[in-house]
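job 3f2a | input accepted
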Amino acid sequence: MFGFYRFAAVSPILKVADTAFNTEEIIKSANIAVSNGAAFVVFPELCITGYTCSDLFHQELLLQNSTRALLKIAQAFADNDAVIAVGLPLRMLGRLYNCAAFVQRGRVVAITPKIHLPNQREFYEKRHFSSGRDLLRGAWGASAGNVAGAVTCTIEGAGEVPVTNFFTVKGRGTLGLCNNGAVEDCADAANCAGSEVRIGVELCEDLWIPAPPSGELALAGANVIVNLSASDALVGKRDYRRNLVMNQSARCMAAYVYASAGVHESTTDMVFSGHLMITENGSMIAESRPFSRETEIVYADVDVERLNMQRLSEGSFQDFDSRSFYARAASFEGLRSLEKLQYRFVSPTPFVPGSLETRDQSCTEIFNIQCAGLAKRLEASHSKRAVIGLSGGLDSTLALLVVAETFKLLKRPASEILALTMPGFGTTKRTKNNAVELANLLGVELRTVDIQKACLQHFDDIGHDPQKLDVTYENVQARERTQILMDIANSVGGIVIGTGDLSEIALGWSTYNADHMSMYAVNCDIPKTLVRHIVSWYADRANVFIENKTTAENAAVSTAVENALRLTAVLRDILDTPVSPELLPADNNGQIAQKTESILGAYEIHDFFLYHFAKYGATPEKLLFLAKYAFAGKFTDEEIEKALAVFVRRFFTQQFKRSCIPDGPKVGTISLSPRADWRMPSDASFADWI
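job 3f2a | predicted structure (690 res):
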């Protein structure tokens, strides 16, 4: 469902040169993986014999037994759609090759010979094996009945088997995948193309060279790379290997399934740790513990549809001629897709870094990008001042912090920053007081302009009843504030700094030509969930300053510590304040009555939808599927479904605001600027999505 497939990587117990024992262990562990929903199971290099057989690879009995073992493994899964990838030595055309063999439904689907053979230091593969380079290029000529460029080998008991490192999927799986776009063969044509699985194969050393085969395989369309490996354990090598797999996965924009030999290989000269990894586009989603003496299996639910959609909008996958790869491709029958996720973490806050360490690094970098962008704009416009509307809410708080740091960067005094607080009909004491306190602590000039009188006059001018609390009532206040900001900026030779965030831009939660507009928008690429974390990060920085200075007795330092304490307190209170435009009157207790998330739904859900919709083109059904999994126990299905309806309707109908938004810096992988990532007709229909 929705392009999810479960992959398993296995490092089994083995006995070197004991093919019977190894075969039983492979079958047993593969059955465990398949019973746990794995559609594709990858074993290590030469796992049928053991990688460390050395000159025993030149023994006739071992070669015969390894071929018989392959047939036995294939037969063990005759009634199952799962693909099992195992390693063995195999003779082809008078030479011996280190091969990966792929079995499904009782047959050997294809053979992939290793291309690059390590032959230095502890490795002596060229002593025993030939490179499969010429076989994979088809240099031996085509066999009768095969497409040009394809090579086959004859395996007794299995017949003619294609030799290839590129696979497609055909036939009716649970999902109904198509072969080369044959939509008429699909059980579910709507999901067909986006969920198509294409497999590329490497064996160990193939990954370690300057230009791994997986790069070309990915350009040809492979979205999953499997690697059967036997990589020995050395000091520091595990981390290097991990980085290698993650980086290649990111470079290929693919999933990478890596299975390496374990501790039961011969320890005559080397030790193997059984390193298993499954990555997706650079992210590690499953990894084994090292040096296990039991059979180890790791699982990951890979989102193939997401990879396919990402390749349509990112990367350079459109200009490669893949015809030669498809000419020699072998095909798997339909793979079993997943009905529910189990071995995958779906972050409920995909814009927010997971760990505190990563959060600190990301927030620092984002903040620096914001400051650098604003600094350039201030210099280029020769602005004497920066003018900002300060509400006491999250967005204007972050924007003011950015402006203050930018002026430090430019070695300009904070007094050249002009903050305006403009209380209206819904302004509460809490937000007003926080705005005043924040401005004072940052040392900026603060002016208060009460907009109520002007708005009442405007109501009278346009014939609007001020007791009618409708959209006109709200927008009059928003436009009055923007008019004041623009006019004062003109009078002081400054520019207006926009405060709106990416979530508001996505939902159109702004008044057109009011808070929608500014002269430079520093928060435009930061979603609400991330705004919250950056403000919290800034408060933490103040705490660190306090901790580092508390032992000092200098009066100036004491004052700085006191100000840092006050700054932390006001930032924490702003973080605890409900998100609101404060355009409707407060309640009887003077508290905020107009709460944005009560109207739209939680920003956490909307940011989740935005991430998967804009970055990966997820369908509404998939958005619901992912959200219900990610938010299980936090939001009800009804809340999620209601929020999705709001998101889709507002995202489409509010595009006209995005078509003319101000300049602002891109800080992440998603931008809704028409000059950057997102171009969309303002009058597009959302009927199909809703």
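job 3f2a | Residues 139-148, 171-191 have pLDDT under 50 and may be disordered.
job 3f2a | closed
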